[in-house]
Design brief:
The complex is a heterodimer of chains A (380) and B (289). Chain A has 380 residues and is an alpha/beta fold. Chain A has 12 helices and 14 strands. Chain A has 2 domains: 186 residues, Rossmann fold, CATH 3.40.50; 142 residues, 3-Layer(aba) Sandwich (Rossmann fold). Chain B has a domain of 194 residues. In chain B, strands 1-2 form a two-stranded antiparallel sheet. In chain B, a hairpin with a 2-residue loop joins strand 1 and strand 2. Chain B starts with a helix and ends in a 12-residue tail after the last helix. Classes of the chains: A alpha/beta (380), B mainly alpha (289).
């Protein structure tokens, strides 16, 4: 009995001491944060994003890239700014993470100030609003922004498909408004005309009236700029209500729920170009293991969050090798110092605004799968 | 032609709003329970129908499963949540918070079971047919309006002529007097929950085919129900029916006059107007409970 008591005392002392020494207990643990929509109408994206970041964690831990196990603390942003700020505050002040994965334009803009103020790096792999390129040094994008997607698809629509008259249906938030601005400034230049614009509230679910207005405008194509369940509802209700014109949208539509919808057939959508058949070992391993783990083909969103997570491990590994603390400030400095990184899709480097540049592919949905019909490389 | 198209679209939307809202209004009017989880009943019915349908068991079994699921959920909630709270003299606010919490639990459970993404009931009935030049109407639009007419006809007859219907109306007026007459208020409450839950089923099934489903849509359903109940007059089934139709029509016809982002705001502008000008609603009584 006495022996047990002594053992317990020794164990307690060791535990207490380890907690008192700053950073000792958790120095080897690497926790990063993630603000993903895990509930609400945008929750479908949360599953998609997590499948990429979780696979990266599996690979990082299996390779023992870091001095200790890596994990991700997920917070539910619901794809909305207000819950995202609450989650970011918790990640920054309670969990004390140096690096946060972010998604959605409104969410990213809302949390970026907290990141900058606390010197915590926020990395976006899902939001595509053009404003995301100017949120400061601590905000990085591993996804090409939507202005490039719009610029890529317009010449194709006008020259190849002979489309002139376009109606835009856009969500009434920073993302939707950025698409409106881009179309207003570039469609005329490409030889088309924006004949009508219709914004919809983020909570709207009935679009049969909108469909009637679209038919009345007699467009050649309808550009849809929304996300989550709403975006799929718009497509379904337009088709159900007699809108048979070409539907055009952006990378946010290329998620399994949307592709499974029969009404998605024939939709033209843009997205970042990733060569999944590349021979480089990182891409090969990602594609093979993703298919094995989730029993489906990876999409660009999976790649982005895999890359964002792997990027942390590369930077943290380099910092540990230098004997430096893994803080947001040091991660930023190391990113600038290293310049380029071997990620899924090849060797990439950041532009001066903290955004990775990828080629943009124009795709058409056929038999529930996106098929590439054109590729535009803005880097060349 | 656009006005006619928007009128028909509005009537379809309004019929679904009315079906959902009348169930809530009946429960609230009879029992004074703020049944916020009515949106959850909608989700349960819709997902059960979807599940049975995609599993290949057909339409009839789907409808039976959705109806049974809605009734069982309503009755269980009443028996195991609302009755114990009311027995302990729980306040209106306690009941509301409990109901709100149940709504969130159901949303998450549905998300875990069926996935958190978007699903839809595929049927050729959702495809519109051009019945006149530029006028597109889907068979489901007619079905929505027909369902609303049949259900409200039956409900009206039930409330007016049946013993239980009279008891339900009496319960909303004076629960103590109901006891004096030898009736059991708890049993009458259970009937209110049963009927209110059944009323939501057609709207849930039709919404699954027209606008699709996601586990989070219960809150939106509840907001519309609440607006229609207040505009129609709290406790007035006929008023709620008219308000549901009016809100659907207003939301659709607003597209003729205002930008599309304001159509939902029209619903709440009407609600605000009624609260200011006629707080008792369209057919409600002025006396406060």
């Amino acid at each position: 009995m006495k022996k047990t008591k002594n053992l317990f005392a020794v164990f307690s002392v060791i535990t207490c001491l380890s907690l008192l020494i700053p950073g000792y207990a958790f120095a080897a643990d690497h926790t990063i944060g993630a603000l993903f929509p895990l509930s609400g109408p945008n929750a479908t994206y949360g599953d998609v994003f997590m499948s990429g970041s979780d696979l990266a964690v599996d690979h990082i831990n299996a390779d023992k890239m870091l001095s200790g196990p890596m994990s991700i603390a997920y917070e539910d942003s619901q794809g909305l700014p207000q819950p995202a700020v609450v989650g970011m505050t918790k990640l920054v002040n309670v969990t004390n993470v140096p690096y946060v994965l972010s998604a959605f334009t409104g969410v990213s803009k809302a949390i970026s100030t907290l990141g900058t103020r606390n010197k915590v790096v926020a990395v976006n792999g899902g939001g595509v609003g053009p404003d995301l390129a100017s949120l400061g040094e601590y905000f990085w994008n591993v996804i090409p922004l939507v202005n490039l997607e719009v610029r890529a698809v317009l010449p194709y629509l006008v020259k190849e498909k002979g489309i002139k008259r376009v109606v835009l249906i856009y969500i009434d938030d920073p993302f939707g408004n950025s698409i409106l601005e881009e179309l207003e400034s570039t469609l005329k230049e490409a030889g088309g005309e924006l004949v009508e614009t219709m914004s919809v509230p983020t909570t709207a679910q009935q679009f049969s009236g909108i469909a009637a207005k679209v038919r009345a405008a007699k467009p050649d194509a309808v550009y849809i700029a929304s996300y989550g369940a709403q975006q799929i509802q718009i497509v379904k209700q337009l088709r159900d209500n007699g809108v048979d014109q070409q539907l055009v949208t952006y990378s946010g539509y290329l998620v399994p729920d949307a592709l499974a919808l029969p009404e998605s057939e024939g939709i033209i959508a843009t997205g970042q170009g990733v060569n999944y058949k590349s021979d480089d070992p990182i891409t090969k391993r990602f594609v093979t293991d993703y298919k094995a783990k989730y029993d489906r083909d990876p999409t660009a969103y999976n790649v982005n969050y895999y890359n964002a997570t792997l990027l942390y491990a590369i930077l943290a590994h380099a910092l540990e090798a230098d004997g430096k603390a893994v803080s947001g400030e040091n991660l930023l400095a190391k990113r600038k110092e290293m310049g380029s990184f071997d990620l899924v899709g090849g060797t990439v480097s950041f532009q001066s605004n903290g955004t990775l540049l990828f080629p943009i592919q124009v795709k058409v949905v056929k038999n529930g799968k996106p098929e590439v019909i054109d590729t535009i490389d803005f880097g060349k | 032609m656009l006005a006619l198209q928007l009128t028909i679209t509005g009537l379809q939307t309004g019929a679904l709003y009315a079906l959902t809202a009348v169930g809530f209004s009946l429960i609230f009017g009879s029992t004074r329970i703020f049944h916020f989880a009515h949106g959850a009943t909608f989700i349960i019915a819709a997902y059960l129908f979807y599940f049975v349908n995609v599993s290949g068991y057909g339409l009839i079994l789907g409808v039976i499963a959705a109806t049974a699921g809605a009734i069982i959920f309503g009755l269980l909630l009443n028996r195991f949540v609302y009755v114990p709270i009311q027995r302990d003299e729980g306040s209106f606010f306690t009941v509301f918070v409990a109901s709100f919490g149940i709504g969130i639990v159901v949303q998450n459970v549905i998300g875990m079971v069926f996935g958190r993404g978007f699903v839809t009931v595929q049927t050729p009935l959702s495809f519109s047919v051009e019945i006149m030049d530029g006028l597109f109407v889907s068979p489901l639009a007619w079905i929505s309006m027909l369902c609303a007419a049949i259900f409200f006809g039956i409900l009206w007859c039930f409330l007016k002529y049946s013993q239980m219907g009279k008891a339900l109306r009496a319960l909303s007026d004076n629960p103590e007097l109901v006891r004096v007459f030898g009736l059991n208020p708890r049993f009458i409450s259970a009937c209110a929950f049963t009927i209110g839950s059944i009323l939501v089923v057609p709207a849930a099934i039709i919404s699954g085919a027209t606008s699709g489903l996601n586990p989070a849509m219960g809150h939106h359903v509840m907001l519309i129900s609440l607006a229609a109940t207040i505009v129609g007059g709290i406790g007035s089934v006929a008023g709620t029916l008219l308000a549901g139709l009016a809100l659907g029509l207003a939301e659709s016809l607003a597209l003729l006059y205002v930008d599309s982002q304001w159509t939902e705001a029209v619903t709440f502008a009407i609600l605000f107007l009624f609260i200011i000008v006629r707080p008792s609603g369209l057919l409600g009584r002025s006396a406060a409970h």
